[in-house]
Specification:
Elements (H helix, E strand, L loop, with lengths): L1 E3 L3 H11 L3 E4 L4 E5 L3 H13 L6 H16 L6 H12 L7 H6 L20 H10 E9 L7 E12 L3 H12 L4 E5 L2 E5 L2 H15 L1
Antiparallel strand pairs: 1-3, 2-3, 4-5, 5-7, 6-7
Helix pairs in contact: 2-3, 3-4
Length: 210
């Protein structure tokens, strides 16, 4: 998990919560919390099993867990087990590296299923989502209708891969009771919400619940 260095304390709390892993530099202004030990990954597996992911990323987790189980059972040391791990790797994130793909031309990515009927039942999910992927903007644009010559606007924005468009629409409809507009940029959808009537009251309410 990567965050700006200004959120180092949050990564430290995350590391302390799990009791495993390390925090390393990941770019000039970014830090990353990593769990790389097979023994320690069991802690993450246990957590994600108890608190399932609420997006299509759950499929990536299930593939990750499948690879973990193959390693635990030492099947990765067999030809068939190793090929299965390569197929899992080919279906996740950016897939196989050019070198791996060239060395294993017959490896095919696993067809990833789509999880249907995902629901956002806990408003804290929105708060956590905002912590990781939310943006708060103050925008200025020239305007002939104001004394200052500028129009000031606020914008709250969340982005996610378009495979989770249904979850975001349904989730924000349930939590915010509305969604104002969606605009598509490549493979992400961005949600622009009503700031004063919805976003600020919602986040204030979450703060008082903590």
């Amino acid at each position: 998990m990567s965050l700006h260095e200004k959120d180092k304390d949050l990564l430290i709390k995350l590391k302390n919560y799990f009791g495993v892993g390390s925090i390393v530099n990941h770019g000039p202004t970014t830090l990353q919390y990593r769990i790389t030990s097979i023994k320690d990954i069991s802690t993450l597996i246990s957590h994600c099993n108890n608190f399932p992911l609420t997006s299509q990323k759950r499929i990536d987790y299930e593939l990750f867990k499948k690879a973990y189980n193959l390693i635990i059972d030492k099947l990765h040391l067999t030809n068939d087990g190793f090929k299965e791990i390569l197929s899992i790797r080919a279906s996740m994130n950016l897939g196989l590296t050019d070198k791996l793909a060239l060395a294993n031309p017959k490896i095919l990515a696993i067809e990833k299923p789509i999880i249907k009927d995902l629901k956002v039942q806990d408003p804290n999910w929105i708060s956590g989502f905002t912590t990781g992927d939310g943006c708060f903007h103050v925008t200025l644009a020239k305007s002939p209708f104001t004394k200052t010559g500028y129009r000031v606007a606020l914008r709250f924005q969340l982005a996610q891969h378009n495979r989770d468009i249904k979850l975001m629409k349904r989730g924000f409809n349930n939590i915010f009771r509305m969604w104002k507009s969606w605009r598509k940029f490549k493979n992400i959808y961005v949600l622009f919400c009503n700031i004063i009537d919805i976003v600020i009251p919602f986040l204030i309410n979450i703060l008082y619940m903590v």
